[in-house]
């Protein structure tokens, strides 16, 4: 097949109604990339026989090695239906949970998604997650039930059973929760926290009820709607109901449209009366009779002789054995007989053996011939042109492929559905954009551009583009002029892939230290040649982009009311627009509305992860992508050669730009920390940093797990007095108390924290958003009970800025002295201050200084908790009172404010540290607890290794929450909660202990209070009797919370009570010994 050229594809980019932008999404390993391969092969980019082996869109070395997709990649394909040509922009996405943010990228720039479901495994956690993502983005969906060949070949299911199995998988209920996916977070958090536990439980129940009300159950997919495709991506076939309706409509004399409605479901065709019945005891459903039976028979026919050939081989083997046995006996009994006689006998036996081998061979040939004839007959009846050579291939999978790809070609079935059922960009933008971008349609000043976007107008005055992610690629892959495709055989391709893997392994083993050093030098020399270039993965919503166009690059924080901030400008260069063809990029002279494309050049350097590009500044930036994964696994990195620090920093910057879900921060002790979504993601990031971005040798710390610190209620909590603490110069005293924050408020703040950027920035929607937040938060306080309802008025500030799940209350007798309305901005004037008075100005400045210092002290305390300097969560502090010591007299704040200005400068520093100390002391008056992050872990495995699997889970403190048996596969689905602390090496241990049968999927789920008192030591008589007097080491082995705290402290270089000299008495000097 001739490869479709870039210029042919470029011509189709202006015909909007014939464009489809689609993504393939699914759970890991359900066959997305294999399906993509089959579609790509229809354009002559790879040989159809190699589809599924090449995994063309998994072009990263890591992807080929690990056999999983790690990023979304796009390719443009041409598809013809009758005389119309369609441009299909296909994006393959990863199914592994660590790379979930790549799915967000894929669905944002596409209008339709194919959801692939493995017919045996069915809908899994990640399937639901990606469906939800697509649904929220307003993307239309079609279902691909894949791996149907497994039912026939692997499970040997008869067609009727296969039908029942498929019907189960099609009934996908799309559960859409309007709440954040992590809204169940912290369910276990602060279990003991609230005295009013029952009250909170009721609240939780109410919340769950509300949540259920928000769930929408919709049966969206139905074969007769034409949105379901049945496929085997590896065998290269697929069909929709209409494929068979077309075949049979003439044969059974029925209208094609009518057949479409009854080919699936409880409809039975009576061949005698030629009538369709709604009930029958003897007949098979029409889908089985007309669709599955013929496919099943074809599989049977292709593999039919395998069984017979096996029997022939087995009987031949048996005969051989018997003969050699007889021969052995004979020789032993007639040992001394005449040698000539023996020789003759041997000759006869050899001849017999030869004859029997020939006979077997003939038998085999006759079986094969018979089978070949049967197969040829079937193929002829179907009117397929399959050559004898193809039908006689040794590899059965190739015969399957040859027949099925002609009978039910996969690319035709899938792409026909895509064209018919998924919308073109104009239709999609009309419905999607108002939903995705409501702000744009509310303001009359944006009306023009909003209309152009809705109409996907290529001739609009303005041009609007969204860059969903930035990825890096090698300069060498840009605009490689289309080369003629070299078709290899399947064996050659496998050999080539194996050879590449072996070479890599050998190279890694052989690389000694010296070689490594050389390699670094070589890398340095070749830096220019192997340099990476950044490309924006973009979609154009209106207008036409050409070289020379001046464009504004607007960051997600851009506000059209302050157009100078978060905004840069650039001019599109001559070679900045690309057609994305997997790993290769082809230059395009221009690009018009309704297309996905690559954008290169200087302007990409001003884009961090995503951006809106517009020719006008009077526009809101496109809403940011919601990424459903939380980066949680951290490591500190440093260059092996300290002189290469600068290269590392540069490398980290590049890595940060090119990966949408990574976080890079500077740790407390100044180290550079990479935070990834999971182990697989982290491994890839480190490799990328080493090989592509920093190009230096890097050493990494042991994984760092973030913890949080909190307090819980106990019977004493209410009776506690506030902490009384004075500044070092004794001028000012504070009374500070602490208490646990109710669970619902913590949850609310956690969810809100995810949108913290919106809250902190001065964005266009700031006022509206802030008011809504204010009202919602007040509701949460009301829900928490009467005492908390009153506290809302006292709310002062949140902390620490990056977590914000702790609050500070203002309980001063006259709280208006410091700030009138706490939540609104701090510029508001206290009511006792008159504006124009000079004294008042001084008082005002004093108030502000004091207020800011108190807030800073609170922020510091909540950022570095007292247990191991991890951030606090769920703690409410209050400033109960402030008093001043003036001329040996204690005076109130009010009186102090009357005095002239004299306490600034050093005083504010003292207030900060005193408030911080006071908060920490107030915290420690309550029972303190460590809060740890928890993964949701999903594993599928068989019963043989279940025991070993549970062994690994229990060793790692996992809490199993469900175990379901999938009856058709006889595989168990196990769901467990696993502490992140215990997750390192978990997947490897699980695989090795279960011989590769259990492959866990981990995703961050929630924070959970570790309900162990870190200060516990045996103290009561009973405890001392049970545990005895314990050394620090023994306590650590008994007290997990303490052990974790000491581990964190050790890493941070904080003071720990550890005996370095273990046995002092044994360290006497020899001379003393004498
Ligand atoms: N029997 C059978 N195996 C299939 C089929 N489609 C894919 N596979 C196999 O399933 C495995 C996973 O296929 P991929 O295409 O890599 O799956 P994926 O969904 O892209 O996986 P990720 O991108 O890592 O999430 C491979 O071993 C494929 O050969 C099919 O139709 N039938
Ligand atoms: Mg894949």
From TrEMBL:
Keywords: Coiled coil, Elongation factor, GTP-binding, Hydrolase, Nucleotide-binding, Protein biosynthesis, Ribosome biogenesis. GO terms for molecular function: GTP binding; GTPase activity; ribosome binding; translation elongation factor activity. GO terms for biological process: cytosolic ribosome assembly. Residues 17-295 form the Tr-type G domain. Gene3D superfamilies: 3.30.230.10, 3.30.70.240, Elongation Factor G (Translational Gtpase), domain 3 (3.30.70.870), P-loop containing nucleotide triphosphate hydrolases (3.40.50.300), Translation factors (2.40.30.10), Yeast translation eEF2 (G' domain) (3.90.1430.10). One of its GO terms (cellular component) is ribonucleoprotein complex. NCBIfam families: small_GTP (TIGR00231). Residues 490-524 form a coiled coil. Residues 182-221, 315-372 are annotated as: Disordered. This is Elongation factor-like 1. Residues 182-214, 334-355 have a biased composition (Low complexity). It comes from the Eukaryota. Pfam families: EFG_C, EFG_III, GTP_EFTU. It comes from Anaeramoeba ignava. Residues 317-330 have a biased composition (Basic residues).
